[in-house]
């Protein structure tokens, strides 16, 4: 019985699996944060371009929003 406990105490495969799980979770979090930031920036850019195109079609001056580049 003591051999079973000794072998269990030396087994580190569970700890390794947990470490890999934590690394995967951190990578996923970084991807989500990056996609959120990029998505917001792309949305702003498309809204700016859309405003410019709409103003060109109607012949009015577009509002001064967005950075245009």
TrEMBL record:
<keyword id="KW-1133">Transmembrane helix</keyword>
<keyword id="KW-0812">Transmembrane</keyword>
<feature type="transmembrane region" description="Helical">
    <location>
        <begin position="20"/>
        <end position="42"/>
    </location>
</feature>
<keyword id="KW-0472">Membrane</keyword>
<dbReference type="Pfam" id="PF04964">
    <property type="entry name" value="Flp_Fap"/>
</dbReference>
<protein>
    <recommendedName>
        <fullName>Flp family type IVb pilin</fullName>
    </recommendedName>
</protein>
<dbReference type="InterPro" id="IPR007047">
    <property type="entry name" value="Flp_Fap"/>
</dbReference>
